Amino acid sequence: MSDLLDQARAVRENAHAPYSKFKVGAALRTPSGKVFQGCNVENVAYPEGTCAEAGAIAAMCAAGEYEIAEIAVIADSPDPVPPCGGCRQKLAEFAKGDAKVTLATTGGQSKVTTVAELLPGAFGKDHMS
Ligand code: THU
Questions:
Q1: Which among 14, 18, 28, 95 is placed 20 to 30 Å from 121, CA to CA?
Q2: Rounded to the nearest whole angstrom, what is the distance from the C-alpha of residue 121 to the centroid of ligand 1?
Q3: Whole-prediction pTM value?
């Protein structure tokens, strides 16, 4: 796990967050063992920005992989930052409910949870006929 958190910490350095000044890094591992990283990228048209988790998911899909086995997210905050609602939905679409999610701070705190705990009763393709 710590290597995944190290990868999230490293990519956070590349975050583009000139508006919020809040840099976030994410690293996910797929069942094949590959790791994909992402950082938040903000835009002056604020809603156009993308979260670190979304960046890591985009990198995973670009490589032809579509399942998250585990993910770590890190930010410089007083407490481990919970993913936003949109990212919870994205995680639920690409991970099983029991996939491990580690939320960490640059100060050394961390909290371990799961995708299902973050978004119980998630809407998914199984709900569409
Ligand atoms: N942000 C993430 O990248 N991931 C999260 O889990 C929480 C929030 C970003 C979005 C925006 O660029 C900045 O943090 C402030 O909301």
A1: 28
A2: 23
A3: 0.96
